[in-house]
Amino acid sequence: MRQLAPALLVTAKTQRWSPEEFLRTLVEAEITARDESNAKARLKAAGFPVAKTLDGFDVTASTIPAATFDYLSSLEWIRAAENVCLIGPAGTGKSHVLVALGHAAVEAGHRVRYFTAADLVETLYRSLADNSVGKTLDTLLRNDVILLDELGFAPLDDTGAQLLFRFIAAVYERRSLGVVSHWPFESWGRFLPEHTTAVSMLDRLLHHCHTVVTDGDSYRMKQARQNGGNRTTTT
Questions:
Q1: DSSP helix, strand, coil percent of the chain (3-state; round to 5)
Q2: Residue 11, CA atoms < 13 Å, CB-side half-sphere
């Protein structure tokens, strides 16, 4: 308001605005500026590794049904404290959709936090060292949605699995959780050391969950083949 007021006052005098019109325009400009500032702060706090958008995702080239993609894009699942699990081979668009949904949620005013599974478990391990796991979980629950990428890329030990279970149990029915894994649910025992832990974790995760299974060739591999085919060689 302080920056805009002098120039806006000149415009108001020139166009003979009423005091109410001048004040309304000034206040609206202040609200817009604050909204933009808050959005930037939420985006920074989310910790996304890259910028991805829903508009930048080619649904027609994906195995994700259009109706499912439209529902996820509506963000209604966040308002309902539901979960989303994206399961499928590498390079089939799972992480793109996860991060793009996170960006859309930030733009819609939600608080979002992104982690790889390894980063989240490492964060919880550090909290375990000083007995502050509960405090760390409370901090995470200040977000409306937490996105967990690359789950299952590396096996977890007993402690890591228990910490991950404790996190999912804390989020259960309180916040939304987005998860990406290349392992189908029946194979989660490959990276979780105990069958009981896997069952208990999936029980909470899948209770209010939209499961999206992706399939097909890797987009990255297809692009690499195309680039290789288009490359010219001089001798």
A1: 55, 10, 30
A2: 10
Q: Where are the domains of the chain?
A: 5-45, 47-222
C-alpha–C-alpha distance, residues 71 and 195, integer Å: 33
| Residue 78 in tokens | 């966040």
> Per residue of the chain (235 residues), what is the pLDDT tens digit?
788 888 888 888 888 888 888 888 888 888 777 777 777 888 999 999 999 999 999 998 889 999 999 999 999 999 999 999 999 998 889 999 999 999 999 999 999 999 999 999 999 999 999 999 999 999 999 999 999 999 999 899 999 999 999 999 999 999 999 999 999 999 998 899 888 889 999 999 999 999 999 987 665 555 555 666 555 444 3
Q: Which residues of 88-119 are buried (b: 16+ CB within 10 A; e: fewer)?
A: beebbbbbbbbbbbbbbbbeeebbbbbbbbee
CA–CA distance from 210 to each of 22, 27, 46, 86, 115 (Å)? 48, 41, 22, 9, 20
Class of domain 47-222: alpha beta
